[in-house]
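Hey team,

Filing this mostly as a record. A colleague (T.K.) asked me to run one chain through the structure pipeline before their review meeting, and I want the input and output archived in the tracker in case anyone asks later how it was produced. No errors, nothing strange. Just documentation.

Input sequence:
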Amino acid sequence: MSNEPPAILAEGLTLAYGPQRGIFDFSISLTQGITALAGNNGAGKTTLLECLSGLRSPQTGDVRICGRDPQKDRSHVTQILGASLQDVTPYPTAKPGELLKFLASLYSHPLAPDSLLEQFSVPATTVIKTLSAGQVQRLKCAMALIGNPRVVLLDEPTAGLDPGARSDLYSILRNSAADGVVMIVATHLTEDIDALADRAIVLAQGHLVADIQKSDIGTAEQLVFRARRDLPLEQLLNALPTESMARSLSNDRYLVRTGEGIDSSIIATVASWCAQHGTEATEISIGRNTLSYEVLRNLNMSDQSIPHD
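Output structure:
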């Protein structure tokens, strides 16, 4: 059994800007893979990444990156930690090749700048201020990886990327994780969560409300449909087979699972029941449970569990 400390460890982390802004008593331990950091705007995702990277000091609690304090052991942690945060913009008058070569000179065992630019499809000799938004976003990710880090923190790395560039980024990040890099990727996109992460942590108003492992998620079929708000789902359960489940995903979207799977008779039952209650089941889809679904479900439930003033 390995005696190595966790790649990312936070214990009792609190940094409050008010009663419902910041992060509150946050704890996590990450040793491998890619973890998605999910939450609505203002949930505390960026604040958390800034604390983990050592850019902000928590009021209480401790952070360790591979056993080191990112503030007290900054010279060591900067060699093993790469980050791309929302408000960081590359030097506008520099060129990507020049910038990455300079950054590479700051690390003991950097990756090759030219190879990294090629992977991210960023031109080496174009002035950064003339790059497209997507190219700048890819450059920021390259900057996070140039030092050949053990830990990487990415804040909305796919923002502004077209589907092809997003798919390419997924491949690069998955390959890095396969090589042992431990990542936290903050995102709003369900596609990012399902394509990248094997774990997801969910923040709501600065509180950790869920820590979900993909390996713990069942693969049962589920039916999702849209109908009028506030349907009496306990009555729908009476029309479905024993051991079925029905829940609201949002005001007008619903999910149904049964122990026997989803077939045409279940779809007909749901459609007929909706008609009896004066609404139509539309946008019906059938699929299997996903990590992003569990994230959305926990976000949906979070208002019921987070105290409000």
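Quick notes for T.K.: Residues 8-214 form a domain with the Rossmann fold fold (CATH 3.40.50.300). The longest strand covers residues 8-18.
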